[in-house]
Amino acid sequence: MSPSSSDRHQASAAPHAPAAGEPRAGGAPLPRNVVLLGWASLLNDVASEMLFPLLPTFLITVLGGTKTHLGLIDGIADAASSILKLLAGAWSDAAGKRKAFVVGGYAVAAIARPLISLAAAPWHVLTLRAIDRVGKGIRTAPRDALIAESAAEGERGRAFGFHRAMDHLGAAIGPAIAFGFLWLWPGQLRLLFALALLPALPMLVLVLVGLRETAPKKPAGDRRLILSLAPFDHRFRLLLASLLIFSLGNSSDSFLLVRAEELGVSAVWLPVLWGVFHVAKSWLTNAAGAWVDRIGPRPLIWTGWLIYAATYLAFAMARGAAAAWGLFLLYAVHYALTEPAEKTLVASLAGPKRRGLAFAWFHLVVGLAALPANIVFGAVYERLGPLAAFGMGAGLALAAALLLLGVTAPAAEAR
After folding, report:
1. pLDDT at residue number 16
2. Pick from 282, 262, 260: nearest CA to 271
3. Which residues of 189-206 are buried (b: 16+ CB within 10 A; e: fewer)?
4. CA distance 63 to 57
C-alpha cells in the first residue's frame, strides 16, 4: 500500500473517531493521523536503524563489552520504557489528549541517539539507550490509542498494518544508509551514529504540525488517572498472561545479529541483512493487516508464535551464512502475522474509554519481560551455547500459543 496524502476531510474539520463498526469504502485512504504517524514512524526508524544493527559490534568490538552486557543494555532499556508506557497511556486517557505525548516522546529519542557517537564505555551506551527508550515509553501507548481512535473498527487491522509496514520500511532504509556510508568510510561508526539526527528533524516537524487530537473530551469527574487492570475483563488479562510468557522467551533481535555473524555474515553486510529483513516485514505486515480485518486477530497471533518457535530452533542448529539470510526472512513472517493482530486484539478487548491504559498494559508486560528475557538469554547463550538459548525461547513461545487458545473472541471479532 503506497502512503496516500491523507483523509482530507479530517484536515478541515475537527477530528473525531469514526463510529464503532462504521466501514470505509474499499480502497479508501486511511485517516490523516494514521498516515502521518506512519510517515513519522518511517523517519524515526531510519534514524534508529542506522545505529541498531551496528550497536552489538560497536559495544563488543569497540568498547570491549560482552554478550551479557548486550542483554543487560537491551533489557534495562526496554524495562525503563515499559514503566513509562503505563504512566503515559493512563495519563493520556485521563487528559483526553494524545498528541503531546507523541511529540515529546519522539523528541527525547531524537536527541539521545546521536549522543551514542560519544560513548567511551558500555555504561554510556546503556544510559543513552535507556534515554532513547524513555522517549519510546512516553509516546508508544498514546500513539497506538490515537491510531485505534482514528480508524473505524473494521479497518483497525489495516491501520496498524500500515503503521507497522511504514515502521519496517524505515528500518530497511536506515541500514541501507549505514551500509552505503560504511562502504565509503569503513569503520567510521561514531560519525554514522552522529548523523542519525538528520532524519529525526523532519519527523519532529511532521508530528508537531500535522497531528490532530482524536481522544474525546472527558467530563471533569472522569479525569481520573487509573493504572490498574480493574477496567478490563478476564479475556484481556489472559491475553496479557500469554504475552508475558511469550515475551519471556522473546530476546532482543540483537542476538540474532550476533548469531548471523557467528554463521559467517560479515559486519559490513549486517546492515544489508537487517535492511532486507525489514523490507520483508514491511511488505508482509501491510498485507497481514488486511487479513486481521477479514479473519480476526487470534488465528494470526497463534500461527505467528508457532513460526517464531520453529525459527528460533532453526537459528540454533543452522550452519553457514546462507542459512542466516533465509531464517531472517522466515522470522519476518512471524512479525507480520503478530504485530497488527496483537494491537487490533488489544483495541477490541479494551473498549473505547480506557484504550490508552490497555495499550499501556500491553506494552508494559512485553517490555518488563524483556529485562529478564534478555539477561537470561545472554547468560545462557554465553555459557551454554545457541541451542540452549534459542531452544528456551522456542519452548516459551509454544507455551504462550497454548495459553492464547483460551482467549475467547471479543464481540467485534465474532462474525
Report:
1. 40
2. 260
3. beebbbbbeebbeebbeb
4. 9
What does each C-alpha distance from 389 to 254, 322, 368 come to in angstroms? 13, 21, 19
DSSP 65: -
Q: Give the residue among 366, 374, 364 at the shortest CA–CA distance from 75.
A: 374
pLDDT greater at residue 197 or residue 409 = 197
**Contact 112/131 with Cβ under 8 angstroms?**
yes
Structural contact between residues 249 and 396, judged by C-beta atoms closer than 8 angstroms: yes
DSSP string, 203-238: HHHHHHHH----SPPPPGGG-----SSTTS-HHHHH
- Given phi > 0 = left and psi -120 to 50 = alpha, else beta, which region is 56? alpha
Question: Cβ contacts of residue 212 below 8 Å, gap of 6+?
Answer: 10, 15, 32, 33, 99
Give the tens place of pLDDT for each residue, 233-247.
888 999 999 999 999
The C-alpha atoms of residue 108 and residue 349 are separated, in whole angstroms, by 31
| Other Cβ atoms closer than 10 A to 236 | 22
pLDDT digits (tens, 9 = 90+) for 215-227: 655 544 456 667 7
Mean pLDDT of 53-64: 77
Tell me which DSSP letter residue 151 carries: S
* Domains detected in the chain: 31-213+227-404 (1.20.1250.20)
Do residues 88 and 142 make contact, with C-beta atoms less than 8 angstroms apart?
Answer: yes
Distance CA 283, CA 234 (A): 34
Does the global pTM surpass 0.85?
A: no
Please name the residues in contact with 237: beta carbons below 8 A apart, sequence gap of 6 or more.
Answer: 229
Residue 400, H or E segment: helix 386-404
Distance from C-alpha of 219 to C-alpha of 224, rounded to nearest angstrom: 10
DSSP SS3 for 109: helix
